[in-house]
Automatic annotation (TrEMBL):
Keywords: Acyltransferase, Lipoprotein, Membrane, Palmitate, Transferase, Transmembrane, Transmembrane helix. The lineage of its organism: Eukaryota, Fungi, Dikarya, Ascomycota, Pezizomycotina. It comes from Aspergillus homomorphus (strain CBS 101889). Residues 170-289 form the Palmitoyltransferase DHHC domain. GO terms for molecular function: protein-cysteine S-palmitoyltransferase activity. Its EC number is 2.3.1.225. This is Palmitoyltransferase. Belongs to the DHHC palmitoyltransferase family. PFA5 subfamily. InterPro entries: Palmitoyltrfase_DHHC (IPR001594), PFA4/ZDH16/20/ERF2-like (IPR039859).
Length: 424
């Protein structure tokens, strides 16, 4: 059964779009009739001044242009959130764990682990925060309570770098029963995993993610401009009417309140969204960005494979994982002797970032911003093209990695030092 806050979120999400529509209709009425027509273009008899048609028409034109832009970005955002939210399909059934128990597991252990697994599954369904912590920290228990599921791993081990658990397997969603591509989170409101999920947004009634974050930024930015314009116009003419008649127009007074409130809110949202985009973080990743430690599986290049021999003087200090995985967990001894089919080995080093490092930070705020808003200035302002980060052209990783990963590779000896490369 859904927790009350989830139900409230969903109910609010359904109520807000019609509420916003009512606010726009009312604001349009207040600016058009009481202000532009009754006060400026055809002043009512109670106002002691002549016609100011030019001012009235100019305000109407600017107002409706801004309104059109706001509605266009809102509809683009709603459309993306509804039809292309970046949801990952759920797997129908969990893997048959019992068949994959390690041979040394006793019946009692199996029962205890099943109970633990059920508990984890319920926990993940009901609390996004739990999911958030376990992922951003990458301190997901690499314990055996996560089912030994070998399905769908090809899309990970054919890449060069991916986010993993401490045991080298990708992060796993025990509710959807599948491995999660980098930066994917389980959203409890829609009860599905979402690629690069940012947050569940009641203003658009859905999940803001990699496909819609750009349109979300554009929507809050243009709404902020619209609110600032309404606030300035309503405040100026309310002061003027007060000087002329000694009273105030109630519609303009409500306009000041609404545009001030929404203006402040959208100003805050615009600033925080742009800041996140410049850091290349999502709202979820930002929760513990100062302490987050990411565990990454980084491919060991072929020319270094011979150095992985524990007897070699180059023996690495990091753990490794070899894909494809065996169909079931092996005892430590069997694991050492396990040889995947010839020619199909993909060996990855398991490395960790320092606390607070973001491997997706491309090294400059501008480059990070381009990943969300686009490479051309026109893309930054027009809500048409998808974010570059949502268009998968790079087969080496799910998302582009930055200098942190280059440093990890260098320190682990997986990359040629710059000096050596320059000499060649
Ligand atoms: Zn999930």
């Amino acid at each position: 059964m859904a927790r009350p806050d989830r139900r409230i979120n969903l109910a609010v999400a359904r109520a807000i779009p019609p509420f916003l529509l009512c606010v726009f209709i009312y604001a349009s009425y207040a600016v058009t009739k009481p202000l532009c027509i009754d006060y400026l273009i055809h002043p009512l008899s109670k106002y002691d001044h002549g016609r100011r048609t030019g001012a009235g028409v100019a305000i109407l034109v600017i107002y409706y242009i801004l309104l059109l832009i706001v509605l266009t970005t809102y509809l683009r955002l709603l459309h993306t959130v509804t039809w292309n939210a970046g949801l990952l399909p759920r797997k129908a059934t969990p893997p048959a764990d019992d068949a994959h128990e390690p041979p040394h597991s006793s019946g009692r252990h199996r029962r205890r682990r099943r109970r633990h697994r059920r508990h984890r599954s319920a926990e993940k369904t009901n609390t996004l925060d739990r999911d958030v912590e376990s992922e951003a920290d990458s301190t997901v228990d690499g314990d055996t309570t996560i089912p030994w599921d070998t399905n769908g791993l090809e899309s990970f081990y054919t890449k060069d770098v991916f986010v993993c658990q401490p045991d080298g397997r990708p992060l796993y969603c025990s509710t959807c029963c599948h491995y999660k591509p980098d930066r994917t989170h389980h959203c409890r409101e829609v009860d599905q995993c979402v690629r690069k999920m940012d947050h569940f947004c009641p203003w658009v009634g859905g999940v803001v993610s990699e496909t819609s974050f750009k349109f979300f930024i554009q929507f809050v930015f243009y709404t902020m401009l619209y609110c600032i314009f309404c606030l300035i116009v309503c405040a100026l003419f309310t002061a003027e009417i007060e000087r002329e008649t000694g009273g105030a127009n109630p519609h303009l007074a409500v306009g000041i309140g609404l545009s001030g409130l929404f203006g402040l809110f959208t100003f805050g949202m615009t600033l925080s969204s742009l800041q996140l985009a410049m850091l290349n973080l999502t709202t979820i990743e930002n929760i513990n960005r100062r302490s987050a430690v990411w565990t990454l599986a980084i491919r060991v290049p072929n020319h270094l494979l011979s150095r992985l021999n524990p007897d070699s003087r180059w023996a690495p200090t990091f753990n490794t994982i070899t894909y494809p995985l065996p169909p079931m967990p092996l005892t430590p001894e069997a694991q050492r002797n396990y040889q995947p089919p010839a020619g199909e080995q993909h060996i990855f080093a398991i490395l960790q970032t320092l606390p607070g490092e973001n491997p997706f930070d491309l090294g400059s705020p501008f480059r990070n911003l381009q990943q969300v808003l686009g490479y051309k200035v026109i893309d930054w302002f027009v809500p048409l093209k998808q974010s570059p980060c949502a268009v998968r052209t790079d087969s080496d990783s799910f998302f582009e990695f930055g200098p942190v990963v280059s440093r990890l590779k260098r320190e682990a000896g997986l990359e040629k030092p710059a000096l050596e490369e320059a000499r060649q």
